[in-house]
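ok so for the tutorial part 2 we go from a plain amino acid sequence to predicted structure tokens. step 1 is just haveing the sequence, like this:
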Amino acid sequence: MTDDPLFASLFAAVQAAPDDVALRGQVAQLLLQRGRAAEALQHAAVVLQLDPGNALALHVLADASAALRTHGPTDVGDAATGTEPPGRPEEAFDWRRAEAELGRSVPPPFVESAGRPQDGPTPPNEPSDGPSAVPSDVPEKIRLDGEGEHVVDVEVERPDVTLDDVGGLADVKQRIRESFLEPMRHPEIAAAFGQTLRGGLLLYGPPGCGKTFMARAIAGELGAHFVTARIDQVLDPYLGNTEKNLHAVFEAARAQTPAVLFFDEIDALGARRSSIGSGWSGLRQMVNQLLLELDSVGSENDGLFVLAATNSPWDVDPAFLRPGRLDRMTLVLPPDAPAREAILRHHFARRPIAGIDLGQVVAATQDFSGADLAHLVTSAAEQAMARSVAAGEIQPLVMADVQHALGQVRPSTGSWLVTAKNVAAFANADGRYDDLVVYLKQKRVL
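step 2 — the prediction. this is what the tokens look like for a chain of 446 residues:
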């Protein structure tokens, strides 16, 4: 109604920013609370077009559909533009009456396993492929101008997450604190022993287990900027440009110190030079340039902490693992039971659910990576969505959907464990993979 100044302001804001998901979601929720279910439904539908997994919009959609089945539709405006309808009922929506007329009760989202408390770890804030989530802040991009039109966009962010936000994996976090973080946190002690604030850490393990998020959490622990170096930013088909790109990335990180410079899939940038054929000498030069930058030849790396991640550390050139470079290695394992529960809670929280036995799902997902768990919930959601489409209304994701998905989704870490077993058994003369040997023996794989 035009005589409601609150809605007049909100609709004006929606018109000005039609793609603002958070704003439109709040408008939909407020409309539903005021009994304007048809309008709320339209706005929720727009939100779901922009963000298909939006939890608030899904709940508004379900409640608005129930309200319309009870009371019938009213005249609505245009949700895409935020215009108002010519009129609306003045009375508030009667939730008790709707619940009684609906004629069925919906189970609580999570149910309790026998002998197990229902409450679990606090879920993370955003989805990810690992133990927890990526930070909510959007990375800043720094454009570095090179010769001519040659530019490199470098992402710089200030993570607001720490290792405490990583669910489970207590042993991994403890190793990172002892071998990497604590020496960096005490510069006065390091200075007394003639040590500089520099260092490198290689995170390795199966794919999809949260190595990238772990690197962000380390940057958050250090209170440092997080600079990401992607392979598509570095590689260039023209001879010499790849080396320039690498130098530009390091210079951007040095300008942001204290900073963590993160190389994902370091085995692609730092492959063994002995395995590089004669087809393109640029790859060998790229490895040499990366080694020069790590050694800070002609530059200063104090306050710059280099982190790298790989699924295949055995494919990385051994020169990167020498003292002063990536001289510390940490195995990032598949999520343990507490981590799996946190990940599952997070992904289920984005969807309408009922009667999910988390304890049972956690027990059935041993060796699943974080990405596998996300895929499991997505597969279960597809089953619930198919039922909802057939019924013409939102039906919650239930345990039967999860059981069906468990019959289809298998852990993706198996092939990695086979390769890792061979490396641990035959290529560990220097003790580099001792933690991997311990893990494989615990699993009775080695």
